[in-house]
Amino acid sequence: MKRLVLGLFGILLYAKQPQLAVQGDTIWMAYGEGNKIFVKSSTHGAARWSKPVELGEHPKLMLGMRRGPRIAVSGDSVVVSAIANGELLAWRNGVGPVKVNDVPTSAREGLHAMAAGGGKIYITWLDLREKGMHLYGSVSSDGGLTWGKNELLYEGEICECCHPSVIVDEAGKATVMFRNHVGVYRDMYMAPWGGKAVKLGKGSWELNACPMDGGDFVWEAPGKLLTSWRRDKQVFLARPGEAETLLGTGRQPVLVRGGWAAWTEGKMLWLKQPDGSVRKISEMASFVSAVERPGGGILLAWDGATEIETYDVVPPMALPKAPSRSEILKTLEREMYGKAPEKPAKQGFELREKSEDALGGTAVRKQVSIWYEGPTGKRGTMELLMYLPKTSAKVPVFLGMSFAGNSCVNADPAIFETAKRGSCASRFEAEYVVSRGYGTAVVFYGDLDPDFDDGYENGVHALYGKPKADEWGSIAAWAWGMSRAMDYLEQDPQVDSKHVALHGHSRIGKAALWAGAVDERFAMVISNDSGEGGAAVSRRKSGERTADLNKNFPHWFDGNFKKYSGKEETLPFDSHWVIQAVAPRLMYTTSASEDLWADPEGEFGGMVAAGMKPREMLKPGERYFDGRMAYHLRLGKHDITKWDWEGFMDFADQHHWRP
């Protein structure tokens, strides 16, 4: 059951109140749903989260208007707190709860904060044990297993419905921030734990009501705090003892070290970046939480219209400068892809079938067997399917690989294979490609390598023997197969072999990049949603990681690449190297807005680092052509669609590929 909340601005929200904390490379999230409390984690930024774990169900769980669970991490203890039926409860590593407040139902206002540091966990809350609203706190020195005596943190009466904040330094000393209630004024104050409170900023807010909005603070440097809070309709930044500066119009500010700030204005979520620029992140957001991403940057979580939404930003980072093309290839071959065999000494082509009346009479269809022999005489074969427009001129061709056999490329009953007929037709758009004056050629990637960890006993590896640590994995095997298909296209009299574009989606997008870098006969390389190990910058550590590749697909890359699992910063290269190796030929990288696992911003960043003219990240549905380089961001999920194909062929048209 989702709890429906109508916010102050009339925004209809499903309150879960996500809260974030970081432990090493892991980001933790706690949230409520109905009367239940959940926790989940991610080692991949906003891209992928673990399955939520339910901590418990409690009647009258406080949710909405910042009255949700909190989370903090101390050593190996992950502590979640929440207020239910007036009691402040805490769970340690999923065990509990234990009650923190020592006077029954005194936490019934439902607003609290928690933070960890220096081996201690501090929790503070609005307390009603005495007349008026007061700020109390408690400390745990054993990772949330037990909690100390409740302490009155401020002698005066405070604002009755604005959430407090707490921050802890490395020495384990805490500071609290809260909105005071002095006469007709509702201003923000800060105090060391149990110490004297001081007002923040120079101005005051005269208000005969509760604004229902607290603030946030962050350590800029040891001993230097930066605070942010709302006054009237504006959000300010202030350092203790200094005048406030305007951040923007809105409410609910959050801060992250390094110059990041986020806040809401009506339904919109705004993010100020370290360079001072401001960007809109969402048009339906409330109750935002933020943490510093492992490795730098910011991760945001908030209540959206119907679910929790997350977003992360990785700051620009220094990448290894790319050397000469020959050095790029030598390094990537040794450290990532592995050395592949040269062109086979014995290789041949057999035209198995040809029709001049394919695709409703608009195309020529060819089905070709490409065979090759290894050094011991063992022979392998891959099948090529090609459609060409009916013309007397030589035709530029898009060459790619299918995941499910050539018969998946089109429902054409004349294609030899019968499995999954037409099931991937939308990814190849054969009729549309032909109608634009281009040809399409496809081989099945399983003909080269079966794409599972078989010890390299099957596919093309069986012809050459088990590879050594610096020899080819499956990605390089698929790339090698693309070059064998190019061998055929070069000798087909109907193909314009000087204008062959190599394209690949997902893992084949990784292979297409490597094949295009190595084989200069490809005049254009298209890498679609290739992500980690493809176009995405590895050092961002966003979405899929090197450790994921090597654990889940140990056969893809060579043995040497395993040493970089979880150690992207030690790579002597990054994705821009393989992209740059395609130069001066045409290079097109694509992303999908919902494909966070492939890290769209990282894919775009790889292109910029390889020489594309910098600009702000594209919005979904935008294309960017910059000379010989192109990038687009499609609205949607991990896929390849007709919209993508429109971009590919528009780019080729721009470079005068059609006769």
Concise summary:
The protein is mainly beta and 659 residues long. The protein has 9 helices and 39 strands.
Please tell me about this protein's structure:
The protein has nine helices and 39 strands. It folds into two domains: 220 residues, Neuraminidase (6 Propeller); 330 residues, Rossmann fold (3-Layer(aba) Sandwich). Helix 4 crosses helix 5. The protein is mostly beta strands and 659 residues long. Helix content is 14%, strand content 37%. The strands form nine sheets. It has a ten-stranded mixed β-sheet with strand order 30-31-32-34-33-35-36-37-39-38, sandwiched between helices. Strands 3-4-5-6 form a four-stranded antiparallel β-sheet, with no helix packed on it.
Main traits of this protein?
659 residues, mainly beta, Neuraminidase, Rossmann fold, 2 domains, ten-stranded mixed beta sheet, four-stranded antiparallel beta sheet, 9 helices, 14% helix, 37% strand, disordered N terminus
Residue stretches low in confidence (pLDDT < 50, at least 5 long) are 1-13
Task: Name the beta content range.
Answer: 35-45%
Distance between the termini: 61 Å
Number of helices: 9
What's the overall average pLDDT, rounded? Answer: 94
Q: Which descriptor suits the 3D outline?
A: elongated
Task: Count every beta strand, where a strand is a DSSP E run of 2 or more residues.
Answer: 39
* Sheet of most strands: 10 strands, mixed
- How do the strands of the widest beta sheet line up side by side? 30-31-32-34-33-35-36-37-39-38
The named CATH superfamily of the largest domain: Alpha/Beta hydrolase fold, catalytic domain
